[in-house]
Recover the amino acids of this structure.
């Protein structure tokens, strides 16, 4: 393993600080999950855990099932934008950013029904995707008719199942 010359000392609580340069270089932010692995040779390796590709894959599968079952457009998002979807209008949604209000609802682990006009639909239903400690994103249904509580309940179940699958610690 190549060394870079940066040395950090362990504090009295057993903590080390990851240098700012590394945090910027590898986009490590406060709250990001990091995996610590002790190697047989005594080295300790710290790795950033990325759930983005897992979220897109699991979300896509759930969206396909929801879109097929309800004949609506379904989408999944990370905490920034819509990343995957299924159904007739998915192309208009994928890549669009979540509104600040919707992002707050998702971060606060709230489900609901709202206007989908800013995304090209009359209505939407949404639920957070979360595990035991982290919120990873949201799952959504879009359509022209206001969704009922059964659809919101389906989104809640899908969001919790996906979130539990993504929770790695």
């Amino acid at each position: 393993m190549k060394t870079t010359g940066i040395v950090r000392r362990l504090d009295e609580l057993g903590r080390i600080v990851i240098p700012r340069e590394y945090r910027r270089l590898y986009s490590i932010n406060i709250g990001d999950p990091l995996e610590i692995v002790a190697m047989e040779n005594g080295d300790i390796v710290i790795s950033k855990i990325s759930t983005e590709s897992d979220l897109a894959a699991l979300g896509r599968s759930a969206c396909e099932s929801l879109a097929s079952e309800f004949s609506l457009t379904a989408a999944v998002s990370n905490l920034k934008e819509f990343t995957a979807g299924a159904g007739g209008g998915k192309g208009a949604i994928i890549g669009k950013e979540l509104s600040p209000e919707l992002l707050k609802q998702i971060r606060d682990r709230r489900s609901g029904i709202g206007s989908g006009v800013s995304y090209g639909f009359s209505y939407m239903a949404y639920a957070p995707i979360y595990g035991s400690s982290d919120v990873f994103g949201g799952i959504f249904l879009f359509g022209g008719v206001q969704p009922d509580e059964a659809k919101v309940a389906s989104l809640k179940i899908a969001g919790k199942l996906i979130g539990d699958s993504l929770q790695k610690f």
Observations:
- Residues 48 and 138 are 22 Å apart (CA to CA).
- The mean pLDDT is 88.
- Residues 52-166 form a domain with the Beta-Lactamase fold (CATH 3.30.450.40).
- Residues 52-70 form the longest helix (19 residues).
